[in-house]
């Protein structure tokens, strides 16, 4: 018998909107202070410079406002569920890279770009209900769900920016929580079951992978890591073996190996 479908997690659209804006504000403050030398630094994202990464971060918000400026898609249901989104990102990397380079070239004043994007988002998004359907590159989604995906974009790329510059840009707690929970739930959806417990304190615990189900006491198969390491694993910034070797992940039990399931996004 296949594992029973678990109840889907829900997110408060108002809180998610606030989290997206808060994380964007943290990034904007840091980008405003970057020197020309820092903006020219390489990143771990292929041939992107810090300037291109900083420009790309604005797309996390501008994609939302651009979608809302288009007609609402017909039909009562979204074409893309929230848990499907992480697996829909493959194949768009080249187009995203081209758009990012064009955006960075067209906006030498990054702070002005950040200001324009934040103002448009703040003006347009709060007035729209979370269940409004919006067109995205991956498919039609509910606005509330699309906003949750923006926390993944912002958290992952804030981490990229910190890694490239040595900065310590903070993470909004609500944004980090939403990002962590979505990626953990996506893992559980990809490999349903109850034989392995994945703990990412303080935000989420999920069970995954078919096999004997744990019901009480200490689970025989446990994986535990922190939110940022989990984000790096799920998005391919870090490989499973590297995280284990660096003691960034603890894994106990013969089934506690997620290497064949990661990354979730590519």
Largest sheet: 4 strands, mixed
Order of helices and strands: HHHHHEEHHEEEHHE
Tell me the strand percentage band: 5-15%
Radius of gyration, whole Å: 19 Å
Helix/strand/pairing class, anyone? alpha+beta
Secondary structure tally, helices:
9
Total beta strands: 6
Mean pLDDT: 94
The percent range for helix content is 40-55%
Principal-axes geometry comes out as globular
Q: What would you say this structure looks like, in words?
A:
The longest helix is centred in the middle third of the chain and has 23 residues, at 143-165. The chain has 266 residues and is of the alpha+beta class. It has helices spanning 13-32, 36-39, 50-68, 93-106, 110-124, 143-165, 173-190, 227-235, 240-245, and strands at residues 133-135, 140-142, 196-200, 204-208, 222-225, 249-252. The strands form two sheets. Strands 4-3-5-6 form a four-stranded mixed sheet. The protein has a two-stranded antiparallel sheet with strand order 1-2. A hairpin with a 3-residue loop joins strand 3 and strand 4 (204-208).
Entry summary:
The protein has nine helices and six strands; from the N terminus they run αααααββααβββααβ. By secondary structure, it is α+β, with helices and mostly antiparallel strands.
Features:
266 residues; alpha+beta; 4-stranded mixed beta sheet; two-stranded antiparallel sheet; globular
Q: What's the topology here?
A:
Elements: H1 13-32, H2 36-39, H3 50-68, H4 93-106, H5 110-124, E1 133-135, E2 140-142, H6 143-165, H7 173-190, E3 196-200, E4 204-208, E5 222-225, H8 227-235, H9 240-245, E6 249-252
Parallel strand pairs: 3-5
Antiparallel strand pairs: 1-2, 3-4, 5-6
């Amino acid at each position: 018998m296949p594992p029973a479908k678990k109840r889907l997690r829900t997110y408060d659209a108002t809180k998610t909107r606030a989290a997206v804006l808060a994380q964007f504000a943290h990034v904007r403050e840091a980008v405003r202070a970057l020197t020309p030398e820092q903006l020219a630094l390489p990143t771990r994202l292929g041939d992107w410079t810090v300037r291109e990464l900083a420009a790309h971060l604005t797309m996390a918000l501008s994609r939302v406002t651009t979608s809302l400026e288009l007609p609402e898609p017909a039909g009562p249901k979204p074409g893309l569920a929230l848990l499907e989104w992480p697996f829909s990102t493959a194949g768009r990397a080249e187009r995203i890279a081209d758009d990012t380079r064009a955006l960075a070239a067209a906006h030498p004043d990054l702070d002005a770009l950040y200001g324009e994007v934040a103002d448009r988002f703040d003006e347009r998004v709060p007035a729209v209900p979370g269940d409004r359907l919006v067109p995205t590159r991956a498919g039609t989604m509910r606005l509330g769900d699309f906003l949750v995906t923006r926390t993944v974009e912002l958290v992952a790329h804030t981490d990229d920016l910190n890694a490239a510059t040595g900065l310590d840009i903070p993470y909004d707690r609500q944004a980090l929580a939403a990002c962590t929970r979505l990626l953990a739930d996506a893992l559980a959806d990809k490999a349903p079951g109850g034989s392995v417990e994945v703990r990412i304190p303080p935000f989420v615990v999920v069970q995954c992978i078919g096999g004997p189900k744990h019901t009480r006491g200490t689970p025989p198969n446990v994986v535990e890591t922190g939110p940022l390491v989990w984000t790096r694993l799920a998005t391919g910034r870090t490989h499973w073996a590297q995280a284990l070797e660096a003691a960034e992940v603890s894994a106990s039990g013969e089934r506690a190996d997620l290497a064949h399931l990661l990354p979730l996004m590519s």
